[in-house]
Structures are given as C-alpha cells and as structure tokens.
Design brief:
Arc Repressor Mutant, subunit A, 2 domains, DNA-binding, alpha/beta, Rossmann fold, five-stranded parallel beta sheet, homodimer
Chain lengths: 225, 225
DNA sequence: TTTAAAAATAAGAATTTTTTCAGAAAAATT
DNA sequence: AATTTTTCTGAAAAAATTCTTATTTTTAAA
C-alpha cells in the first residue's frame, strides 16, 4: 500500500507518515501542491491524502488538476474547516472522502483502507483487469485464470485487454479492427475471428464458464454468464 | 437515483425519505433487515442506507449478507454509536461509507451523491430502452422481461429496437421495411410478419400483458395496454 | 352468416455468419 | 543465416440466421 501525503505542516506530516509506516505502508510526503502534483502524476499511489490549506496551489485546485490529468487515484481531503460548503467543494473537485481536523489517527487509517479497498475492487489504478476469475496483469503482460498462468502473444493480449475493458458490452468486428488492429477499412479477411479463436483456446476452452460469447450478426461480448 | 433506506425508527425514516424525495430521488423504506434484504436483492438501487441497530438482522449482518449474495450496490451505514470499533466492523462488513447519528441532512446527501457518482463511473454506462417491464439492453444486446433474459437475433433485435423507439405509435410495414431492413420497394413476401411472429414468441407469448399489437390494415404498435 | 382480405404460423430451403484448420508470410530471436 | 514464434490468409466445415412458400387462422365488411 503506497500513500502520498500532501501537507505543508511538517509536524502533522511527520506524525502521519510515522503512523502509516508502522502499518508498513509506503509513504511519500509532499510539502506543497506543486510537489504533490508532480509526485502524484509520476508515481502510482493507492491513495492520496490532501490537505486543503496548502501554499501555492490549494487542495481543491490540486484535486481538480489531478482529475483533469485523468488520475483516478482515490483522494482523501483533510480540512480544518469542516463546513458543508468545503465538503461539497471537496467532492466536486474530485475527492473521494474527507476528514475534519483534528482527527483520530485510527479513523484516518480506516478511511484510507476503505478507499483503497473500494478502488482495488474494480479500479483503473490497479494494473490488473479482472472479470470473473480471469485476471489480465498489465504489468506482467500475462493472464491468469483459476491459478493457471496463461501466456499471450502481443495481439492476443491486446484483444483480450479490449474485451475486458468493454466487458458487458457487445463489440463489433469493426470496433475491434479499429481499436486493436488500428485498421479503418474492411480487409475482407477473417483475422479477428481467428484471434478470437486463439484466445478462446487459451482462456476459455478448459473452463466451464466461458467468458467470450459470440453474438451472431453483431460481434462478440465478454461477460460472466 | 433510487435509494433504499433500512431504518426501524419510523420518524427518522420518514424524515430522510421526505428529504430525499425533495431532491426528486426515488426512495423505498424497509423497517427491518428481512425486508431490507428482500428489497435490496429484488430491486436495483443506486445506494443503500443502512442503520446498524435493526430488529432481527442488524446492519452489519445485513451488509455482510448482501455482499455474500454478490450485490455491489454501495452501502452507507448509519451508526448511533460512533465508536471506532463499529466503524471498523461496518467497513469489514462491506459498507462503503458511514455516518454517525445525529447527522446533518446535507451531509447525508453529499455522501450519497459521492457514493453514487463513484459507482456510476466504473463500468460501461447502462444503455437501456424500456417499455412496461420489458427492457432492451443496447450494451449487452439482450432483452429482459420479468427477470428473464431473452436472446434475440440481429434482425429481431433491430425490429424490437425500432418498435420500442416508436412505442405508442403505429408503424407500417413500409416503415419497418425501410428502417429495419433498409429495403425501399415491395418484395412481395411476408418476411416482416414472420419476424413480428418471432418477436411475439419471445417477448409476449408467456406474458399476460402483450406489448406488440396488430392494427389491421395499418401495421403494428407497441404499447402497454 | 358468408366471404374476401389480412395476418399468423409452420416448415424447411437458402443464405449468411462463424469456427476451425493448415499453412504461408512476416517478424523476432538465437 | 537459421530457427522459432507470431501474425495473417484462404478455404472448408459447422452453425445459426434469414427468408420464402404454403397453409391456417383471424378480422372486418358485405
């Protein structure tokens, strides 16, 4: 579990850092918004703790900025004010939770755990895409199903990634051609079908619950049942 | 936005219900865990508000039960106690947020909005056409009626989509031929009639209230009664 | 009530779509 | 440069859908 704390008050920062490290979490501290922003964007944290009152860029602005940069990491805002307006601004800015200072350390931990847990369940922060018992590890570039490691070629991987990211939705062959092969015209060949077949052999064949389903006349869909 | 409140104290339940309805949210109230569980599992709510102290099944148990049933709807726990232990149990049981009684109504709204927003971000946005208890899911490319999943071929799907989009209006065979088949002349066959028949077998046959009605000499109309 | 037109249904032929296979071409690795 | 791996192609087999035709049933008007 990796946490970024953006907090200008050194004492508080140090206190929180120490406390979290005792939980054996990895902790980075940024002392202003600038530093916070660059750390947040260049590392992959599980959670970001963000003080509202910061020099230069304030917490709301920073949260906003990070969301505009498409960062999905959950953000917990620390606010000394605790008025409803602040809470609303916080959520609007893209925060996922907030905590009013002064707070009990235990409560911080609980809320961080909750954020992290919620995010890891179906989060784009995580580098593992999931559907049912199938995992696609974007770091290792490997698939796993039911404990088996499944190696995929580049094209197979790309196709599976596209399927999982669009699970529950029928994707047409044209969609696939454009998004996976980057081909924007009809080749007249059945390459896609052949690759679907390759994938099925690897991830579905020996399992009871198939994940890739054909929808005749429309395309394919990845779904649990 | 559809909310389920599980709360045994009638005054509080009524107060919250009224407040949320003023935000034009749909609100159901369950007065005990049993009722809460059956409502939660048979409807699809955006958020569930769950009191910890309930008769029969308590809030923690209920949250646990719902998660074991694979329900992913975000849960906000209401606790009168406010001790850290309760909060921890709440999160462990599968709650996504909690609020200590007594609370400001505005704060409840903020937290519910945040939960709902977060939930709707992940996964493809639902894309569903409806008439009466019939749903046509444009993502999954499947129809549902009264809990049954109904698979359709491409042509059947296209025809049903056209019917639903034009519900309450008589559509002629010429309209259908042009819009669904893209045929602009008379083929002399009764293909459309045959397909209407296919559709009826799948979506109307076993249900009391028929949705596809023949208007002799004119065409067909899809309507509730 | 009869009758002609309109619509619904059943069966199966025709067509389209999808899967699978074997192998060629291209790319990457040794 | 040779070998292995990956990507792609075309063709045949299998599966599913689409469409036609013929027949039965229903509707509405005479």
């Amino acid at each position: 579990m990796k946490v970024l704390i953006v907090e200008d008050e050194p004492k508080l920062a140090a206190f929180v850092k120490k406390g979290l490290e005792e939980q054996s979490w990895e902790v980075d501290v940024a002392f202003d918004g600038q530093m916070g922003s660059s750390l947040a964007l260049s590392n992959s944290y599980d959670v970001i703790v963000l003080d509202v009152n910061l020099p230069k860029i304030n917490g709301f602005e920073l949260a906003n900025l990070l969301r505009r940069e498409n960062l999905r990491t959950p953000i917990l805002m620390l606010t000394a004010l605790g008025t409803l307006n602040d809470k609303i601004s916080g959520f609007d800015a893209g925060a996922d939770d907030y905590l009013v200072k002064p707070f009990e350390f235990q409560e911080l931990i609980i809320r961080l755990r909750a954020l992290q847990k919620r995010n890891s369940e179906s989060g784009p922060t995580s580098n593992v895409l999931k559907i049912a018992d199938l995992e696609l590890d974007l770091n290792e570039r490997i698939a796993r199903r039911g404990g088996n490691r499944i190696e995929l070629t580049a094209k197979e991987f790309g196709l599976l990634e596209y399927f999982i990211r669009n699970k529950g939705r029928v994707v047409s062959r044209v969609d696939i051609a454009e998004k996976v092969w980057d081909i924007h015209f009809d080749t007249g060949t059945n390459t896609i079908d052949v690759y679907v077949n390759f994938l099925r052999k690897k991830i579905d064949k020996e399992f009871e619950h198939k994940l890739i389903h054909t929808v005749v006349g429309m395309g394919y869909i990845m779904k649990e049942f």
